[in-house]
Design a protein that fits this description.
The complex is a heterodimer. Helix content of chain A is about 35%, strand content about 25%. Chain A is α+β, with helices and mostly antiparallel strands. In chain B, strand 1, helix 1 and strand 2 (about 30-35) form a beta-alpha-beta unit. Classes of the chains: A alpha+beta, B alpha/beta.
Amino acid sequence: MIEITAEIIKGHGLSVDEYEGIKKLIKREPNITELGMFSVLWSEHCSYKNSKIQLKKFPTTGKHVLLGPGENAGIVDIGDGLAVSFKIESHNHPSAIEPYQGAATGAGGIIRDIFSMGARPVACLDSLRFGDIKKDKKSRHLFEYVVKGIGDYGNCVGIPTVAGEVYFEDSYQDNCLVNAMCVGVVQSTDKIISPLYGPIVKGIAKGEGNLVLYVGASTGRDGIHGATFASVELSDKSTEKKSSVQVGDPFQEKLLVEACLEILKTDCVIGMGDMGAAGLTSSLSEMATRGGHGVEIEISLVPRREEKMTPYEILLSESQERMVVIIEKGKENTAFEIFKKWGLHAVVIGKVTNDNMFRVLENGKVVAEVPATALTDDVPQYERPANKPKYLSDVNTLNLNNIKDITPINANKVLADLIAEPNIASKKWVYEQYDHMVQTGTVIPPGKGDAAVIDIKDTNKRLAVKTDGNGRYVYLNPLVGGKIAVAEAARNVACTGANPIAMTNCLNFGNPEKPESFWQFKQAVEGMAEACKVLDTPVISGNVSLYNESENGSIYPTPVVGILGLFDRKVEPMTFSFKNSGDLIYLVGSETLNEIGGSQYLKTIHGLIKGDAPEINLQTEYSLQQKTIKSIKNKWVNSVHDVSDGGLAVALIECLSFTGKGADVNVNSKEGLRNDCLLFGETQSRIVFSVDRNNQEKFEELFSGLSISCIGTVSNSNKLQMSINNEIFIDADVEILTRAYDTAIINIMKEV
Amino acid sequence: MKYGVIVFPGSNCDTDCFYAIKNELNEKVEYIWHAETSLPKDLDVIIVPGGFSYGDYLRAGAIAKFAKIMPEIIKFAGKGGYVIGVCNGFQILTEVGLLPGALLHNDSQKFICKEVNLKVISTASKFTSNYKKDTLLTIPIAHGEGRYYIDANGLESLKDNDQIAFQYVDKKGIVSKESNPNGSLNNIAGVFNKKKNVLGMMPHPERCNYSHKDSLKLFSIN
């Protein structure tokens, strides 16, 4: 018997008060196995004990929402008997320690969350953050192997990776961010739409006597305490935690996808769940709690790949590609047959009970026995103290008078510098390593539109998906930055013609026990929640990743938002490229303001990360998005592109890249408006359209309530000429800039 | 016409091929499970699809070689039946010896997914007889092990027998180093067997369902 000492409790990441709480719940001292179980389930990663109170601020219901947060993934109804399940999740710490396996298993975990709802995964997205790859070799290494890990996993499973974003900032140097999102399609009713899609299944265990089936890979010592590991700060000693990083097998995952979707077509399944963070312990206790039942397992029946594993290790292992399926008693042979067909190991390890206990036997002897709800529901909730960080008063002061404005002399050079900045440059180096076309539904692939657009086989459904989250804005102003994260992701989706209907989010922040970090978290959540309400995109799933800190400080607070958009099938999806010379170019939305705070321009050209985040008026944003969708539906526009990092000039180059076209643009500037703000400022809620002259009147009428200006025409010249009040500022060869845009990251990554 | 699409554990372009034949070519098609020991009757064309059969452990296609259905496919091809292997299917067909050469890791050592340009080199096969020689096709690739390799004698023999189906070329149709996405010998993207009833190619014609539909005609042996 191992005696539970204060040191052991601390080593399990539990406070003294939490330990006392556990004793009260089970009315005795826990043994070491039970302590381990509580340790992982009560970690922030599994319990959201520091964040739950804040997360309640998110709207989680709406006309499309079938299933909000709380299951493995949420589900939205898209009509005609079909629904979409999607979720984003982080795998930051494992990827910082072992980028290839860390990222691969991040992809694997989120894919399992989706098919364990009965949904066939149809798209993956990845939101990544690293240090400065231009100057930091380690950041290049992490970038290289994270992308390879995601690619090798998703490519093998046969799910297209269609969108995402990558940013490089010093604050992520020691603690990179790897957020993976998966989107799946499921039938919303019993009516069979296609053999490809299953019915919805939940992660529940109920019905006394029903069987607990263990399916997939055997259990090893990999990933023990991964969930606890995710809930502490990184340090030099973290590399010693390499054993906490799991190893992925995408082939096994592919077999699980097909077998699990096949078994759902039979009537033997009661519930299904994947073994993710905290392995068997979390999946079984959560399924028991949701089903209002208990679970009893015999640990010696669990398939193992290593010798002499203790119940503690087996219960906490995070070995990958493992599923739990609750099978109706008497129908197990149906299940065995299907799993055998797919070459998967499936074994009954226990049964559902009616006593609400999670009981673990080893050769018939009880080794752990705790109420399932004590693990899942009785964790204490913390409202942590929050203080406005001191750094803000320093970084928020930006006197524009001290920043030299752009002149016609240097405008071209500034544009060239911005275009080659990795945060702005083409992400081709990334997405060409991902199979973004498998499943043959990718209508708008990466690099062509503001969001990816995919068709769903055997249906007339078309979806748009995108992730966004500018950490720099959130660092400067968490409330406004949180709003912008939601607004930008939704805007990108709207720019393809789809209506944003729901969102998922991954909240990457620093240590919540530090009041300044927690203040950022609270503020950002408030901002996001408000944006969700105004933009009508309820939150259906998500993940919180706190403790993203190292000895060198916290990451930028980085909420990443994933938005799902639904198309009316009569709508042709829209790309951002200019199509025809002679088309009019419009800048529509909010009026451009004297805002360069937090912009890429200010960072790249002036070396400053200062000022306030750009303002955002959510009502204007909503109106702009809805009108944009209408303009695409009515075929009044030929291209649509939102103005974001790098401002208007960069947006125009993106519209022109690989088109062979040029643009003659003149912007009328108001008195007092700076040139750099006009050319490179990142004022929110602005979109660039190209419009056929025949549609000019209808287009202008549609957007009449917003700021709208015709700023030029598409030309045949392959030159971008940009004037302010008829004075030429930019006169650039598009082909040269496009090449620089296209190859910037490729060239940097040659130096790995 | 009746098509059969082989399904190995780990195939992931099987449904894509199935839907391309059903929806784009409007022909009959069915799946054939790898553990079957006989083929459906009246089959005209077998498609060995892309993916990662058996996880592509050891070497791409190396384990699929031992699948129960494989002797039937070899028999079918031996009798003059049409077989097309795409991507992993191409790798498998070289492993079992239905096609000459081998597919190695891309010279970049990276997986590559993008559109490339192909030139039709030989029209001596039913698969390519719908095209004129030197026709240019735009078509996606998505592979990590697509670098075609064959020894010098083998290459001579391919040329002598008109077995080179496609080469990677630039937009103007010129064979160049820049247009070679994976380092394939002589920019070879696809080859036939001597009898021209078996085709293997790395690019994915079944993915041309939105644009470049010209490439879908590759599946047609009319």
